[in-house]
Write a structure and sequence with these properties.
Layout (H helix, E strand, L loop, with lengths): L2 H35 L1 H25 L2 H23 L2 H4 L5 H24 L6 H25 L10 H28 L8 H37 L1
Length: about 240
C-alpha cells in the first residue's frame, strides 16, 4: 500500500515535466493546420508530390528501355569494328587527294556508330532523372547535326567519277535528319516532362544505324571498284 503514493508522485512529476511540451504542441496544431490549408502551401505540397511521382514513373519507364539501348549500343560497336577492319584493307584508296569524299563519308559513318553507342551508354546509367536524360539526347543530336552540317559546307566542289558530290551529300541527309530527330526528342522531354516522349528517339536511332549500314556497304563497294580499276590499269600499262 505504501507504493501507491510513490507511483502517484512519479506520475504527477512526469505529467508536470511534459506539460510545456504538450502546450507547445497544442498551440502549434492550429498554425500547422492553417498552413497546410493555405492555397500556396497546398499547391507546393501537390507539386512536390507530383514531381516525386514523375521521378519514380520515369525511373521505372526508362528501365523498361534497357534492352533497346543495350541492343542499339551492341549493334553500333560491332558494326563500327567491322567497318574499321574493312577500311584498313582499302585505306590506300581513301587517302588519295581526289577521293576525299570517300574519307569524309567514312568519318560520317563512324560518327553515327559512335554517337549511337554514346547515347546508349548514357541512357543505361541508372538513376538519371528525366531532364538530364533529355539533355543527353540534346547533346548527342546537337553534336551530330553540327558535325554533319560542317561536312556538307566544307565538302570539296570537285566530283569524282566513282563518287560524285551529289551522292556524298545524299548520304549525309539521312544522318542529319536522324540527329535532328534525336535532338527534338530531348527538347520535348525537357519541355513537357513526359517519359513517353522517349519513344520518339527510336526513329532517329534506327535511321542512323540503317543509313550507316547502307553507306558502309556503298563505301566498300565503291572502294573495291576503284582498286580493281587501278589494278587493271596498272597491268595494262605494264
Amino acid at each position: 500500500m505504501t507504493a501507491l503514493p510513490a507511483v502517484e508522485v512519479h506520475a504527477s512529476t512526469l505529467v508536470g515535466s511534459l506539460a510545456p511540451h504538450l502546450t507547445i504542441v497544442r498551440i502549434s496544431i492550429p498554425f500547422l493546420h492553417r498552413a497546410a490549408s493555405h492555397p500556396d502551401s497546398a499547391r507546393a505540397l501537390a507539386e512536390t508530390g507530383a514531381a516525386a511521382a514523375r521521378s519514380l514513373n520515369w525511373l521505372a519507364y526508362v528501365e523498361s528501355w534497357r534492352d533497346f539501348f543495350l541492343l542499339a549500343g551492341t549493334a553500333a560497336v560491332t558494326l563500327a569494328g567491322l567497318l574499321f577492319v574493312a577500311l584498313s584493307l582499302h585505306v590506300d584508296a581513301l587517302i588519295h587527294e581526289s577521293r576525299q569524299h570517300l574519307l569524309a563519308l567514312a568519318r560520317a559513318i563512324q560518327l553515327s556508330y559512335v554517337l549511337v553507342l554514346t547515347l546508349s551508354l548514357m541512357m543505361l546509367v541508372p538513376g538519371v532523372p528525366l531532364r538530364p536524360s533529355g539533355g543527353y539526347l540534346v547533346v548527342v543530336g546537337g553534336f551530330g547535326m553540327a558535325f554533319t552540317v560542317r561536312q556538307l559546307r566544307t565538302s570539296s566542289q570537285d566530283s569524282h567519277p566513282d563518287f560524285s558530290l551529289a551522292v556524298f551529300r545524299r548520304r549525309l541527309i539521312f544522318p542529319l535528319v536522324g540527329y535532328a530527330w534525336i535532338l527534338s526528342t530531348g527538347v520535348a522531354m525537357i519541355a513537357l516532362r513526359l517519359p513517353e516522349m522517349l519513344s520518339w528517339c527510336v526513329g532517329g536511332v534506327c535511321m542512323l544505324l540503317g543509313n550507316a549500314v547502307g553507306a558502309s556497304w556503298d563505301l566498300l563497294v565503291r572502294t573495291a571498284k576503284i582498286k580493281r580499276r587501278e589494278a587493271g590499269a596498272s597491268r595494262s600499262g605494264g
